[in-house]
Amino acid sequence: MSAQPASLTHPGGSSALDEETARAELYGLLSQLYYAAPSAELLSALRVAVTEAPADGAFLQEPWQVLVGAARELSDAAIAQEFDRLFGGVGKPEVFLYGSHYLSGFLNEKPLARLRTDLDRLGLARDDSMSETEDHIAYLCEVMRYLIAGDDVAVCNLTAQRDFFATHLQPWVLQLCDALAAQPQARFYAALAQFTRAFVAVEAQGFDMLD
Predict the structure, then answer these.
(1) pLDDT over 80 at 27, yes or no
(2) Over 21-77, what HEC string results?
(3) pTM (predicted TM-score)
(4) Cross-referenced InterPro entries, in alphabetical order (predicted)?
C-alpha cells in the first residue's frame, strides 16, 4: 500500500500526465483507507487536501469535499473505531471487503481463483506479509495503481487497466458502496463509499471511451 499521503491533491489535472498521476494516487488512497484504520499521517494529509477542483463542476469535487470534510470533523480515534466496528471484530463483519462475497455469496470461491490466475498472468502475487486474500478491495485498488503507475509497459497500460477493472472491480464494488451507505454507524466510511462510487463511475466512463 504505497500511495504517498503527502502528495494528496484534488482529483483532476491539467494534462494527461497529471490525470494519470491523480488516478494512481487515488487508487493508492482507496487502498490504504480500506486496508486498515488510517494512520495519523494519512489523516493529517487528507485534512489539508485541496478541495476545489481546477474547473467548476468537476464530477468528483463534491464527493471529494464530503470525504475531506468527514476527515476534518472526526478524530483519528473515532475513524479507527468506525473501521473496527464495520470491518473488524470477532466473527462476521458488518461489511465484507472481499469481491468473492459479492460475486458468489461466499469467501474464497471461484472469483478469487480467477483473480489469482489473472494476477499470475500480470506477474503479480500477494505479499506474504499481507493477511487478506487478493480479492480484498484494498489489494485490487493497489493492483490498479500499479497498472497505471508501473514501469512495465507490457502490463502497465490502458488495456490491462480496463480488463482488470471490468473483470475484478466493476462487477461488485458498487454493492460494497451500498453496504457501507446502509450502515447507520458509518460516517467517514459512508463518505468514502460515496467518493468510491463517483470515482468508479468516472473510471468506467473513461474505459468505455476506449472501445
Answers:
(1) yes
(2) HHHHHHHHHHHHHHHCCCCHHHHHHHHCCCCCCCCCCCCCHHHHHHHHHHHHHCCHH
(3) 0.89
(4) DMSO/NO3_reduct_chaperone, TorD-like_sf, TorD/DmsD_chaperones
